[in-house]
Amino acid sequence: MVNIPVVDLKAQYESIRREVDEVMARVLRRGTFILGEEVDAFQREFAAYCGVSFAVGVGSGTAALYLALRACEIGKGDEVVTTSHTSVATVAAIELAQAKPVLVDIDPRSYTLDLAQLESALTPRTRAIIPVHLYGCPAEMSPILEMARQKKILVLEDCAQAHGARYAGKRVGGLGTIAAFSFYPTKNLGAYGDGGAVLTNDSELAKRLLLLRQYGWEERYISSIKGVNSRLDDLQAAVLRVKLHHLDEWNKRRCELASLYDRLLTDSGLALPVIPEHAEHVFHQYVIRHPERDQLRAYLKARGIQTLIHYPVPVHLQPAYKDLGYHADDLPISEAAAKEVLSLPLYPEMSEDAVKIVCQTILEFTNENVQKISPRI
Fold it and tell me: Which of 109, 227, 315, 358 is the most exposed place for a label (fewest CB within 10 A)?
């Protein structure tokens, strides 16, 4: 039996072992592990890569979203509009900031925020919009930014799955007022532990973020504002600096493998990923849709092929968020997607032969089943 994982971090490490081992040893010899030289250097390099002025390293992607909201002074009594078909971290960060999440449906093609529903979700209490660049696909930013400009609302990009993606030729992370990234190990740019960053072109927001991530200290042990402890450490920053040099190459490989999936699954009847106009996808996930998703997933698992579901339950239907007041059928596109989406194996070190095996197995399943297959959207 084959064994094809969804992602293979060991294979990635082997491809950069010498570089990683050298920088880890450098940090250990230096003996500075919190907010040291590696963090400073990574912040400069990642900001330059994304085309923004400032990057502030923090403890996680969730912390990046939360601190971005705090830096923008969004809190109790404020509303923040985002999607329900996303990682729960997006909504958890809004609630951590004591603001109210307002959830809207997604576009059925890109799985990103549905522009048709956005304007009706805005109220006088709306302070921010969080478009999520889901699966590596940028949201339709131009109309979002224009609407935000007219309404004097902030735009906070959730870039946790879209390192290196572009919209209208510009990298995500520099399109809105402020942006949040995650460096969870499985991300296109991942650390060997938790980590995140907040990006902005606003020098005042950057200064506030530097205070917020470390107790509000302007000088050690003296808090000028109420902050938290959420710091990117030097070991993770050193690893990220190595990986940043490979990111474009890895993203290119992801796109090549996604194109192979597209070709081999063209006649499968599955709904395959769609890349919107003006967007450059980086395929953090290669997501298909099938009305018998759970049966397909079990069929693949039995044959040694791992898959994941991003995400099985929309945030508005999760038990912890009943108090938001949403019910079944309120966001039908998100609810339908949650029942059908499936993330196939995809990582830069994956071989084309492995992709072919995955596709052959999917085609065997679809040929064995006579039920109606979701058409390509």
Answer: 109
